[in-house]
Amino acid sequence: MIFNKDTAEKTAELLLQINAIKLNPGNPFTWASGWKSPIYCDNRLILSFPAIRNYVRDEFSKNIEKQFGKPDVIAGVATGAIGIGMLVAESLGLPFVYVRPEPKKHGRQNQVEGFLQKGQNVVIIEDLISTGNSSLLAVEGLKAAGANIKGMAAIFTYGFDVADQNFKKANIDLYTLSNYQNLLNLAVAKKYITEEEEQTLREWNVSPSTWGI
């Protein structure tokens, strides 16, 4: 679920402007999972553009408080959401921790890095939601450390049905600044893509694991 439509449209436009999201239906990307994809998203680029990272920080900050109430701690999912998560925590005047999808294999074998007390209310920041599996592993790590999870806020989601099902099953509220639907609407309106390319992108979204095979 998006926080609101205006933010979703503005965020989508900014991500396209800086090539954090690339749309290339004619020459698909290959994800690490092996999936063929006409879209590639790298939200870490946001950190290199001060005005845009400040916009994302401010939208997260005001909408997190509105939707979840002010938490005790902000947690960023490693590694993509550490930077923006720190900015949100600073904006809200809150402690920050970051969490890995699984514990380290060496040293203290921590999954959660930073100071977290049992029972503290935590909102998790994520940069991108695909299936939701790695994000929810981070949720479980925080729960194991004693956190009370208020919800998760992400920059962008591909809007896969499997992700919706995974978050519903885990009973975790997910809100995003933007999503795939708003991205495609904006991309067509601003002529980043043709209507034919839009159709290809929508077909991929319905069955991403088998598309292009």
Spatially, the strands of the biggest sheet line up as 7-6-5-8-9-10
Q: And the CATH topology?
A: Rossmann fold
Cα-atom radius of gyration: 17 Å
| Number of strand elements | 10
Q: Taking all residues together, what is the mean pLDDT?
A: 94
Separation, N- and C-terminal Cα atoms: 30 Å
> From N to C, what is the helix and strand string?
HEEEEHEHEEEHEHEHH
Our estimate of the beta-strand percent is: 15-25%
| Domain module count | 1
Please identify the top-level CATH class. Alpha Beta
Q: What composes the largest sheet?
A: 6 strands, mixed
Uncertain regions spanning at least 5 consecutive residues:
none
Number of separate helices: 7
Structure description:
This protein has helices at residues 5-17, 50-68, 82-92, 133-144, 161-170, 180-189, 195-206; strands spanning 21-23, 29-30, 36-37, 39-41, 73-77, 96-99, 112-113, 121-129, 148-157, 174-179. With 213 residues, the chain is an alpha/beta fold. The strands form three sheets. A six-stranded mixed β-sheet has the order 7-6-5-8-9-10, with helices on both faces. Helix 1 packs across helix 6 (180-189). Its cofactor is Mg(2+). It catalyses: orotidine 5'-phosphate + diphosphate = orotate + 5-phospho-alpha-D-ribose 1-diphosphate. Catalyzes the transfer of a ribosyl phosphate group from 5-phosphoribose 1-diphosphate to orotate, leading to the formation of orotidine monophosphate (OMP). Belongs to the purine/pyrimidine phosphoribosyltransferase family. PyrE subfamily.
